Structures are given as C-alpha cells and as structure tokens.
C-alpha cells in the first residue's frame, strides 16, 4: 500500500526570485509545458497583479494536466476579504488553485504587520474561507513557520489549524530563511501531527513542506518532513530561488522515485518515462536562462556519472552498479568515462565502446591513442570535459574519421569604426574556404547579430564555417554554440590558450570540444572544427566523401 505524495513546483514564482533571473511570458509558457510533461501536481505560475509578466502569463496560460496555482497574500487588516483588491487580483486570474502567504511568527505579526495575534488569525481565516467560497482550492503558505514555532509554538500551531479549519486543502510549512536543520524540521512536524492536550493532531495529509537552501540542506529538510508525515513537497527546478535557492526538485524527484524507503512507500504523478526526461528538462531550463549547466549537479549533471580513474572504469565494466547509485538512463543521463593522462586501457576501451567503436583488448591502436592523449595534454589540451574532441582524436588514430570536408584556409579581420549613427563599433569578418570532394566553397560572415551588436571573431568564424557545407548543410543547420571558455595554460613566454566550446543541436544533444594554440582565434577554430565534425558523424556519416 503506497501513500500519495504531491509535488508542487514554484519555479515560475519563487524561482524568479533568483538574482539575475527574469522570466519572460514566453519563458514561463515553455517551462510550464515542461513541468506538465514531467508530471508535477501543482504549477505555481506567479503573483497576478504584482508585475506585468505574471499578469500576462495568467491571461495566456493554456490548459494543463497539473493544477495551475496563483500566488498572493492574505487580506489586510481593517477590510473584508471580499473588498481586498490584492486578494481580488489573485482570484481574478481564474486558476483552480490559490496559494496565499501569511505570517505565523508571533514576533513578526506584532512588529512587521503591527497588528494583534488575533487579527492575524482572522486575516488567515477570512482569506481562506473567501477562496473556498469561490469554488477554488486554497493553500496557506505559512511564512517563517519554523522560526515562529521556536518562538511561540502554540501560536504557530494555531495559524495552521485556523487555515485548515477554514477549508485550506494544504497548509505549507515554510523554512523561509533556510536555516532550520533537517532533524528539527522532522521533530516539529511530528509534534504537529501528534495529539496534544487531549486534542487531535493536525492531519499530515494536509500539510506541505517548503524549504530553502541557505545551509545546503533544503532537500534533506524536505525528506525529513516527508518522513515525519507531510504529504506535499514544494521546490523548484535546478533549485532556483532567492539567496541560496529552494529545495531542488531535480534532485528530490528522482530520490523519491528511485530510493528506498520512498520508492516503495509513496506514489507521485511522475512516471518512469517522465523521469527519463529530467536531464533534458534541467538543461533546457539553464538554456532559457542562458546559464551553463552545473556539471556536478546530482542525477542530471554532465559529471554525475563520470568515472576518471582506470580502476573505477574497469570495475564498472564488470559491475555497472559498483560506482553508480542509479542507472544513468533512468533520469535521462549517460555514463561518461573521461579521457586524460591518468587513463588506462580500461577507461579507453570503455569510452570507445560507449561511442560505438569496438576495439579488441591489446589492439596496438589503444596504446597509440593513449600516447597521443598524454602528449597533447602536455601541450595544454584537456579531454576530461571535451569528450567530442577525444572522439575525433580516437577516430583519427583508428582511421575511422570520415573525410567530410577539408579546410583550405581561413582569415579573420577585426575593424573598429563608426557606424551610421556616428557610434564606434567593433566588427569582425571571417572568410573560410573549404573543399568538399572536388569543389571549393568560400563563405564570408560578420560578427554582428540581428540587433547590430558585435559577437566577436569566434562568432564570425562559426557562422562562416557553417554557412555552406554543401551536402552536409542540413545536418548542421540546427547546431549552435552555447558556451565558450578560455584559459591560458603553462604561463610565461610559452603560454598557450586553451579554448573549450560547448555546442548544442535541436535534438537536445550537447557536446564539448577543445582547441589549443598560442593564438586564441586559431584555438577557437580548432574547437569549432571538431564540433562540426562530431555533429556530422552523428547526422551525416553515411554520406561522407571519404
């Protein structure tokens, strides 16, 4: 017998409190579609009337399987719930569910709100009752609950009981400043649910948990609350949120579905198939925010299932579970065996096999590949993260790199001049000449984007290289550069530049390539070439002109 555990996502509202994050209405619609596809139960869309973006979102949001929720605050003292314009704006969004925040900390009620404790209870009661009378599901967001419970547990408990008695489906216990230890969260929840003074305890199946990550324990705090009896868990994708963020649903959801005792004890709305889309969804959110995905992110990070040491790779080949706590494919991720000068033949063969290149143990090519890697890393290359460039290196040694095209020459010029508005601008122009079969093609591109902003010489090179590859053009049309990292290695007069380029395509594939040269443009072009060739092997390999 499993209990139902409900998942409430607040990426669009609480996640937008993240420093530097500002969703557009289109962004919110894209994220809504992903969340609905994943299988969460509630999607909190924002605060109607608080800003134009949130108001526009609620006017355009489509029907969702998940319960769409609008967020607001309890009515203000001195007026009725029916005549409170802030509460009315939230209700006017027309969502099936409404979540309102209220104070549960007696000290804050007196000092921040400047009202009596009884007036605050009446604000909570009247607001919830008004929402329920409109035929909506009501949630009470108990702000600063755990701090309030430490100051006056009786009053904090009365706030929760008042909301539930007024008809709230959920009363959500918030660790608003993120400083409560998981053990304390568990103890407080158990106190709430346990009978007290002859009265019944509060119902756990109507309590939720909302934790922040200011001490790095938001997920642990949420799990402690679940262990103690709450049945709704709130959080955000990728842990977005103000200060240090919220409980990360990208970590919590797979833990609840894959780890015992949760996997056998609870059911959620997320299916096994939905879970397989988690990695892509996490990276898609970072793409919307123009952020680089965190490689070490649990479950979904690029390094979450990366095994560098030769001993580990050898053990994994015999027993995949020995160094992996779950099968990477269950969350849509993949095992990676990075290549470096610490690598042995076990690592190498494992990585080649993952690329679909089967090489027999003892093949002399293995030794050549390892020696090449070690020599190139001594020159400044790094293949730990540049997996696509490693594949190109291995294919060259194995004579398995198709001859798609040959670069005959390239040139980049940088000009600083005044534009038609008499403003100084920098403009880069790139010329690339490639040979495909017996035909030479010359392409020219500038670094200006559609807004007239300069994107630099690497951007111009990338556009020129991908402008006309003849029979391979369709394979690279959906390819784009998403990150560009530069590092100076070795130092002194012999310093060289290492460039790492991350690319992505329309299928959600993401790959990294590396280039090294004393000249940053030359290093960049080397990484660009590997990126294009890797993409062509995946999508146009059968048509190569080798």
Automatic annotation (TrEMBL):
GO MF annotations, alphabetized: (R)-citramalate synthase activity; 2-isopropylmalate synthase activity
Swiss-Prot/TrEMBL catalytic activity: pyruvate + acetyl-CoA + H2O = (3R)-citramalate + CoA + H(+)
EC id: 2.3.3.21
Any one biological process term the GO annotation gives: L-leucine biosynthetic process
Gene3D superfamilies, A to Z: 1.10.238.260, 3.30.160.270, Aldolase class I
One Pfam family cited in the UniProt record for this chain: HCS_D2
Leading EC class: transferase
Signal peptide: none
SMART domains in alphabetical order: LeuA_dimer
Protein name: Citramalate synthase
Annotated organism of origin: Palleronia salina
């Amino acid at each position: 017998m499993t209990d139902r555990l409900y998942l409430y996502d607040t990426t669009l509202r609480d996640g937008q409190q993240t420093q530097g994050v500002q969703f557009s209405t289109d962004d919110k619609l894209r994220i809504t579609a992903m969340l609905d596809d994943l299988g969460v139960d509630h999607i909190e869309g924002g605060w109607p009337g608080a800003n134009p973006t949130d108001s526009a979102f609620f006017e355009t949001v489509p029907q969702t399987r998940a319960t769409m929720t609008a967020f607001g605050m309890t009515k203000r003292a001195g007026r009725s719930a029916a005549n409170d314009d802030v509460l009315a704006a939230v209700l006017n969004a027309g969502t099936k569910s409404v979540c309102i925040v209220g104070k549960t900390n007696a000290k804050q009620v007196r000092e921040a709100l400047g009202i009596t404790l009884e007036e605050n209870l009446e604000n909570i009661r009247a607001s919830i009752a008004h929402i329920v009378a409109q035929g909506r599901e009501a949630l009470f967001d108990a702000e600063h609950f755990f701090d309030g419970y430490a100051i006056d547990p009786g009053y904090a408990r009365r706030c929760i009981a008042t909301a539930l008695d007024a008809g709230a489906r959920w009363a959500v216990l918030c660790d608003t400043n993120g400083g409560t230890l998981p053990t304390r969260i568990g103890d407080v929840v158990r106190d709430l649910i346990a009978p007290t003074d002859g009265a019944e305890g509060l119902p756990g199946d109507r309590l939720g948990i909302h934790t922040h990550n200011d001490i790095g324990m938001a997920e642990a705090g949420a799990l402690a609350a679940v262990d103690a009896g709450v049945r709704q868990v709130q959080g955000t994708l990728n842990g977005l949120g103000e200060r240090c963020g919220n409980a990360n649903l990208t970590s919590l959801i797979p833990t609840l579905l894959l780890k015992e005792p949760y996997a056998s004890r609870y059911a959620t709305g997320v299916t096994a198939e939905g879970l397989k889309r988690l990695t892509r969804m996490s990276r898609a959110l970072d793409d919307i925010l123009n952020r680089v995905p965190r490689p070490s992110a649990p479950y979904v990070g690029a390094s979450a299932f990366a095994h560098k040491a030769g001993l580990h790779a050898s053990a994994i080949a015999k027993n995949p579970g020995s160094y992996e706590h779950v099968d990477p494919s269950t969350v849509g991720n993949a095992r990676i065996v990075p290549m470096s000068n610490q690598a042995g033949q076990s690592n190498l063969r494992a990585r080649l096999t993952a690329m679909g290149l089967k090489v027999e143990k003892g093949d002399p090519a293995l030794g050549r590949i390892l020696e090449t890697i070690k020599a190139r890393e001594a020159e400044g290359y790094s293949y730990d993260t540049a997996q696509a460039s490693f594949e190109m290196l291995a294919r060259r040694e194995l004579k398995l790199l198709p001859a798609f095209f040959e670069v005959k020459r390239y040139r980049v010029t940088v000009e600083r001049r005044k534009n038609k508005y008499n403003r100084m601008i920098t403009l880069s122009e790139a010329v690339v000449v490639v040979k495909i079969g017996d035909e030479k093609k010359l392409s020219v591109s500038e670094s200006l984007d559609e807004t007239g902003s300069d994107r630099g010489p690497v951007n111009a090179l990338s556009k020129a290289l991908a402008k006309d590859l003849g029979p391979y053009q369709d394979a690279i049309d959906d390819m784009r550069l998403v990150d560009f990292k530069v590092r100076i290695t070795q130092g002194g007069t012999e310093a060289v530049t290492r460039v790492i380029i991350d690319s992505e395509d329309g299928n959600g594939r993401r790959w990294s390539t590396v280039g090294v040269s004393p000249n940053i443009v030359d290093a960049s072009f080397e990484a660009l070439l590997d990126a294009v060739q890797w993409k062509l092997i995946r999508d146009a390999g059968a048509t190569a002109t080798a």
